[in-house]
């Protein structure tokens, strides 16, 4: 099958998201669409999938012009899509989500859930996803929800598969497994469009690369192109791909976790008897496969977990048992792993989101009244300082690209007096230009003497940022090792192997 996009143009008011884009994808190839957040990649694929209607241009399959009024038309034409932002219903089970739009039925028209469950099990076993068909999606971690999206697309046996940032929430082993899946799909003749901003992934699996910047195709590149060349094409300038930081100058111990445990709604220990200490002026990275207690650990520190045992002290002050507002007021900055759910209010403006943590007192509120001029001045300064690409302070954050949304969250948390920064998956779903900026700001925070905890499933990020690394497995700390520890050692620890004794 041959897919052609000719002159696709999509506008949102005065914003041209896609500007006369041409693209050709053939059966049995992996065509990578590379570009920054906000470059127009996802918009283009949403046009292909029938979620948006193009203002100009046409879609052809094997030379025949297609008219897609919605995703069902695209699926019927043999196009499947794994979305960057989950298209799942939290109160439905895995099997119910996978069968949506392609429901198997019994005689009489009743839903055949047994067949749906069997389909989930078959695909999960074939590709190593380890999914429970009867699990509620709302109870699953972000990483497991992403696997549901992939299984949902694979269940339709599409001839063209679009993967929109599918590895944004996957660990390195899960990413490697997905790369193997994509190769097998390619070998059986599936045409794959792979949207990503991760250069290693591009070079590993792409047969062809098309680079998009500011809504336009700016060129094609070979998978043999260097990272610096690809990054420069994406951003339009030279990009620093390594984190430059001086050796840490750690001070006194600031944060201490003693015998910390978190118990879930079923009475199970999801974090078990954790002891950790973080000093001023150092970055402690917490590494591990998604779903091994990292999320619950950070939420316990922030007062978001209802059942916590043990002690959490910051500068000698006990935080366990405090409300999230009290923890934030104690000087804790928090960048959550799921920014769309926990980091901002999509319907609020940039200015409104930037003052959420302090919407009840000075300088933004006096005598119960919002200080609109102060809020506006603060927002303008933050947009400039954090290079937030937007039309103005009144832009709704939900309309920004992922990288710019993350910068809004970061600007809010770093623009106050901090005694601790907790950053969970700080560059998830963010392009290379924004990654460079976010890493620089995290290091600057460390150099200002603030203790920093970074939680990341990206080993490259862990190794680049960390002064020390704590690895979690099944809710426990396997060990704490220096930041320059070899990747293979970290990989074994993430699988539960204890490290050799290392002086810390």
UniProtKB/TrEMBL annotation:
<keyword id="KW-0762">Sugar transport</keyword>
<keyword id="KW-1278">Translocase</keyword>
<dbReference type="InterPro" id="IPR050107">
    <property type="entry name" value="ABC_carbohydrate_import_ATPase"/>
</dbReference>
<dbReference type="GO" id="GO:0016887">
    <property type="term" value="F:ATP hydrolysis activity"/>
</dbReference>
<keyword id="KW-0813">Transport</keyword>
<keyword id="KW-1003">Cell membrane</keyword>
<dbReference type="GO" id="GO:0005524">
    <property type="term" value="F:ATP binding"/>
</dbReference>
<dbReference type="GO" id="GO:0005886">
    <property type="term" value="C:plasma membrane"/>
</dbReference>
<dbReference type="InterPro" id="IPR003593">
    <property type="entry name" value="AAA+_ATPase"/>
</dbReference>
<dbReference type="InterPro" id="IPR017871">
    <property type="entry name" value="ABC_transporter-like_CS"/>
</dbReference>
<dbReference type="Pfam" id="PF00005">
    <property type="entry name" value="ABC_tran"/>
</dbReference>
<dbReference type="InterPro" id="IPR003439">
    <property type="entry name" value="ABC_transporter-like_ATP-bd"/>
</dbReference>
<protein>
    <submittedName>
        <fullName>Simple sugar transport system ATP-binding protein</fullName>
    </submittedName>
</protein>
<keyword id="KW-0547">Nucleotide-binding</keyword>
<keyword id="KW-0472">Membrane</keyword>
<feature type="domain" description="ABC transporter">
    <location>
        <begin position="3"/>
        <end position="239"/>
    </location>
</feature>
<keyword id="KW-0067">ATP-binding</keyword>
<feature type="domain" description="ABC transporter">
    <location>
        <begin position="255"/>
        <end position="499"/>
    </location>
</feature>
<dbReference type="InterPro" id="IPR027417">
    <property type="entry name" value="P-loop_NTPase"/>
</dbReference>
<keyword id="KW-0677">Repeat</keyword>
